[in-house]
Design goal:
The protein is mostly helical and 335 residues long. The chain has helices at residues 7-20, 29-54, 58-82, 88-99, 103-116, 123-130, 132-149, 154-161, 165-177, 180-207, 211-228, 233-261, 266-277, 283-291, 297-326.
């Protein structure tokens, strides 16, 4: 209950309420973009700075390896479930979204840890960046393989088998690995690592102290946007809405088990769990629009944004934190 009363979560509710009562409250798009850039830069710099203090040891490599592997494999499970009701393009697009991550969910979990005075490791930021792309590759691959076996018409079959496919995969790799959010996050992390303690001390008044206030503004905007997408979920139906919650729970449970197996500290365990359980609604749609143009964006965007994202920040973060304490995960690990 305490986490529900945090300013950031309450501002999310305020944004959703403003939309539902048809208020004219809005956050201008350029401002929302600036808030997003700030949060990514702050998280990247802090993660790089923390990484410079502890270095990249065996545990860091194990976590990053597990993150990459999970991101690539999770779409296989979600795709199999989604194919019960959906065609290959929609199943592949949603599978890619749920194998990838939500940077905003991660940032909200970081804020939760900061409010609780709990430390976390910088390499979790690297794990977040590494989880963006593998899911996009596997989700698109699954969909296109299914489409090649069951082409809907001659044009579709030809499009799947032309040499232009090579340029498509090249462009897909560019979209998934060099999109603005990933580039800023990785770049800021490298800068934080290279400049170390002195660099962090020089920017912390701007990058650390205002962080929670900026997050409140950003989640206000996210509440506005998420509530606007609720109408799109009518097309999704009960099956997909249930999927949006159950997939987050199942994948989060895998993340929690992975954190326990790797002996992570409580703060790191929460962040890894939320990375596994979150779903992308920014990076993946940009790539999927290119590779799977037949996928319905009114399914994969509102599902991750209006169902899984609110569930994670309102229910999953405090619940997994309670489980980490109850199961004493990382009780003997360094913070």
């Amino acid at each position: 209950m305490e986490s529900l009363l945090s300013p950031a979560i309450l501002f999310f509710f305020l944004g959703a309420l403003a939309t539902l009562v048809r208020s004219d409250l809005e956050v201008p798009k350029p401002v929302a973009r600036l808030l997003s850039l700030y949060l990514l830069m702050a998280i990247g710099l802090y993660g790089g700075y923390k990484l410079s203090l502890g270095g990249i040891d065996g545990q860091a490599l194990a976590v990053m390896g597990a993150a990459i592997l999970a991101s690539f494999l999770m779409p296989f499970a979600t795709y199999a479930v989604l194919r019960i009701k959906l065609g290959p393009e929609d199943a592949g697009a949603i599978g890619a979204a749920y194998g990838s991550i939500s940077a905003v969910t991660f940032i909200t979990a970081v804020s939760f840890l900061q409010e609780s005075g709990v430390a976390y490791s910088g390499y979790l930021v690297a794990a977040m960046a590494l989880m963006e792309s593998p899911a996009i590759v596997s989700g698109v691959l699954l969909a296109r393989l299914a489409m090649s076996k069951q082409p809907r018409d001659g044009a579709a079959a030809s499009a799947l088998q032309t040499p232009a496919n090579g340029s498509l995969w090249k462009e897909l790799g560019r979209e998934s690995m060099l999109n603005g959010a990933v580039l800023l996050l990785v770049g800021a992390m490298v800068i934080g690592y290279v400049t170390g303690q002195r660099g962090w001390d020089s920017v912390s008044p701007l990058m650390y102290d205002p962080f929670k206030g900026v997050l409140c503004l950003f989640l206000l905007d996210m509440g506005l946007v998420a509530a606007r997408r609720l109408g799109d979920l009518k097309a999704a139906g009960v099956f997909l809405i249930a999927f949006g919650i159950l997939a987050a729970v199942a994948q989060g449970a895998v993340g929690l088990a992975t954190a326990w197996a790797l002996g992570l500290s409580p703060g790191d365990a929460l962040l890894l769990t939320m990375l596994f359980g979150s779903a992308s609604y920014i990076a993946v749609p940009a790539a999927v629009r290119l590779a799977l143009p037949g996928a319905n964006p009114s399914l994969y965007i509102p599902l991750s944004l209006a169902v899984t994202f609110p569930f994670n920040i309102i229910v999953a973060i405090p619940t997994y934190w309670w489980l980490i304490g109850a199961l004493k995960i990382g009780a003997g690990a360094a913070g």
